[in-house]
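ok so heres the complex, two chains, lmk if somethin looks off
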Amino acid sequence: MSGPPVSQRDEALKQKIAETWGQPYDALPKEKLIVLSANNEHILWEFEQAFSLHYALAHGRRVVFDTRDVGGGGSKILSFLTSIYQRSSTSEVDVLWGGGDDIFRKLASLRLLEPLTLTADARANIPASFGRQPMLDANHYWAGSAVSGFGFIYNKPLLTRLHLQPAPTSWDDLADPRFFGMIAVADPMQSGSATAAYKMIAQSAPNWPAGWAKLLDVLSNAKRFYDGASDAANAVVAEAPLATCIDFYGTLRVNKYPKRLVYVSPAGQTAFNADPIGILKNPPHPKLARAFVDFVLSPAGQALWALRVGTPNGPSHNGLFRTPIRGDVYTTYREQLLPGMTNPLRPENEMVVAEALRGLDFNTFRRLVYSATVANAAGLRDARAALIAQGLPAAKVKQFHSLPPNIRTMAQMKSVAKQFRNEKQAERIMTDWRQFFADKYEALTGP
Amino acid sequence: MNLPANHSPTATSLNGLMILLIAAALVLPVGLTVSKAFSVDGQEGLNGYWFTRLVEDGTAGLLLNGLGLAALTTGLCLVMSVPLALLAVRCRFAGQGMLSAAVLVPLILPPFVGALAMRQILGQYGTLNMLLDQLGIVPLTEATDWLEGGLVTVAVLQALHLFPILYMNATAALANMDPSHTQAARNLGAGPVRTFFAITLPLIKPGLFAGGTIVFIWSFTDIGTPLILNVTDLLPIRIFQQLTGDATGKTYAAVVVLLAVSIGLYIVGKFVFGRARGASGGRATLQATPKRLGALGTLGAWSLFGCVIAVALLPHAGVVLNAFSADWFDTVLPAEYTTDHLAEVIRDEDTYNSIVNSLKYASASTGIDLVLGTLIAWLLVRGRGWGKGCLDAMAMLPLAVPGLILAAGYVALTAPGQPLHSIGPGGNHPAIILIVAYAVRRLPFVVRGVSAGLQQVPESFEEAARTLGATPTRAARKITLPLIAANLIAAAVLTFAFAVLEVSDSLVLAQTTSNYPITKQIFRLFTSGTAEAMNLAAALGVYGMILLGGTMAIATALLGKKLGAIFRA
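and the predicted structre for the whole thing:
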């Protein structure tokens, strides 16, 4: 993309670079960094610009990004990389950035990432985990570069026109039958953030069956299961008054339509997970890759996420509205922060999970949610409609909430998680689950 | 298998060469991807386990849904396009040129934003329901969700998008028809309806079959429209969901089944509907005099064209409105308009690059398709070589291959260290793999379109030329090619338009900004997550529509009266 005019800060840095290296910044030799990223071009442009200036000052060479995009986020990136590494020892890509922590966990388990050599400063300021979600890989194969939160967004005037006020403020509110068919929801198989949020909803109950019941009540109010979290967020324009939403999609939209859209980050029930950065196995430019990772995790890099455009440490063209993972950024740059930007990783935001629910396995859970909802969307909706029409009779609601026989306890979930490692068993379990929910919904819908 | 009586070794060699080419560009990459359908627990060798699992998964029901949908869509396309084609070829009326061109505009709907526009218009709280509420017809609290329409709605939307394919094939077929046949029927006392069913329809059958097969297989394997309408009980949708989520060997087994059924359907369809009746239909040797319509007739023609075009262009209108909208929330139309989005997009040099790239890729792939497709069509219709059945089926295969599967195959073939790495997405010449992908996927358009034309041109014309001393090449160049020009142009227009709008391969295989075609650039804007993402993507969609519309208009202008004459015969 052709760059916008450089800011005063960038001009000052360029002058300093010229003084240090005896030639203008634009005349310095270039180094190439190949970045595979799910981040948007505003983010990539701001980081490329800022990193190049920092690097040029220190090393007398500019940096240009060769940005790769494989046509989608998490799942597409993962299938692309695994396919490449099956046939080659290198992907010819240096840095993988964004796309959710689940692909990084998977790539780390396949040893397709290089261990990072984090600075002491980064290690001191990035929490190892928050709310039992890792923010930094235990073996340093990846580090969180920003925090993704998950909440919901609603269209205020539309809620009023549809007589659906008061507006919801928590996930529990979304389970209210008055919101039946009104919520645009993300498919857990497509969105790791959505899965993390669904997991938190389930974990906010005292035990597994109660947590599942709570989640199913919310998801059975779904209007539709959208491919990704951004797609669901777009639905509040013309399809549904409410939608589940990644925090920065929400804040960007609210920033544009402050009177009409409201983003809710349910207190103590918001899933926060890391949006990581890592270096891919056998990168073509390992030194530069490490320098870039260090920059992204440094206060200067982290400030770009959350500061206003034109502030001394902020981005030079576009406000990025993403949440830094380093807590010190929120205090060091307090005066320059974008409106509404607060540190999410505070103790009061950390949800207390009942001991009984701590063993919830992310991937097993996401497949179960998928089988019960996305794979049986029509049946789920019909069953819920029938229950609401009958005044939610207790016996039928209990049947509605029932779980497949092989996953009724946490111990069973652990054993199912092991079985999922085998492709044959995984497929059989998924097929059985799909059928279990289909049969149950049909029974509840019938006379 | 029917062995040709006077077998030609040259034709057989060419058949073999074409089969090898398609195998290398299509079967090999697809095979690499779907080989997982035949292995269990990583063990080598053929294993049918995943196919047995498909039975338990209700795959038969999904396939039946797909067949019903495809039949309905093809039927709707026929009902929409044949009357329009008859009007366009057989009649003259004021504004005809404009309306005939406008019928092609549904082809140029840009992806993503086209779907979004449908959601904005037909969504439960979208334009249509806001309008019904404002007019006091249906209050918003009781609004219908038009996007939950089921298979019939999918068929209607598919037909509105795809009918130009049948329209172009039908127009070319009608233009190729010898009017003396219908005149003879009319002279013998047959009414227009009887003449149409007894004479015209059988004679234009190759053209209808050509367009019909493409529409049928397209609808049968379509993902986009069912996803917009939340219809998931279809095999391609099940495959897509698993490919983007949790694919197992069963997913790839489903792909194999989808391919086999598509090709099986094509072969059955060809057997039942597509057999050419020799060359007895004959091509026009004299020019039909089009009927000039009076005021009432012109009004009727306008109404017929107008209705179809107005409905088919609704999503386009949605895209344009989105591009110009500064504020479109809870209102029938945008509350404020701006040109900022169009200006911002055009200022970005990536936009310019993507337009140039799309033109380059689509022109190159259309050129390849015209050469190879015409050769294949000639081999199929005129050739006396062995292996025609195999070549015919292989040439239709690209229609049924899910884009993601082909793209994944190309990624595997061009991985670092592989011999083809330099033409892959990470190599030095990444444009090549995109052009190959586009050419492979659109090859059936040319093969079918040109085959239909060749079937209508009596071989006796070429034989006469050869008796008079012309070489086979000269006979083909001087006699056959001019006679099938309408089919070639129709095929080229369709191939070019669909290459510019190609999605799956572009998303996966164009990985560096400088190589993005326009569809990938729209996708990049669409998924940026920013609040203006939709408007910017729609703005680029508008440029895409102008590009395609403009290319078609320039083609028409360059060919001028010739084009009109070709279609009129």
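quick notes: The first helix of chain A runs from residue 8 to 21. thats all i got rn
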